[in-house]
Amino acid sequence: MSRTEMLMVFCYDIARAAARRRVAAVLEDHATRVQKSVFEARMTPSRADRLAREAAVHLEGGDSLRVYAVSADGRPHCAVHGTGTPLAEDQDFWLL
User: Fold this and answer.
1) How far apart are CA 45 and CA 53, in angstroms?
2) If residue 46 lies in a helix (H) or strand (E), which one and from where to where?
3) Where are the beta strands (DSSP E) in the chain?
4) Which residues bind Mg(2+) (predicted)?
């Protein structure tokens, strides 16, 4: 898999509150919640796959977790409407 970081979007539809909390807790450690059941993070596809598998162990029958990868070419076509803070753009920085 690619070692290039991409914007990864994790979305879930989970019926039971307890399972929803467990999945959210896993995702919150590595991603930013942008809606009640949607998280975004910059990471490699392989890291996103590991995170999704870690979260998916908490799914029950009828639940779903989806992961979408947005490449650098796709980022300019993304938009946020209404409330919410967009994920910060990649920036170079200096350590002093």
Assistant:
1) 12
2) helix 45-56
3) 6-13, 32-35, 38-43, 64-70
4) 13
Query: Domains of the chain by range and CATH?
Result: 6-72 (3.30.70.240)
Give the residue with greater pLDDT, 1 vs 33.
Answer: 33
Quote the pTM value: 0.84
Query: Degrees (nearest 5) of the Cα angle 2, 37, 7?
Result: 25
Percent with pLDDT over 70 in the chain: 85
What six digits make up the tokens of 25? 């807790």
CB 10 within 8 A of CB 42: no
Residue type, 49: D
Could you tell me what percentage of the chain is helix, strand and coil, using 3-state DSSP and rounding each to the nearest 5? 30, 25, 45
Q: Give me the phi and psi of 9, to 5 degrees please.
A: -115, 125
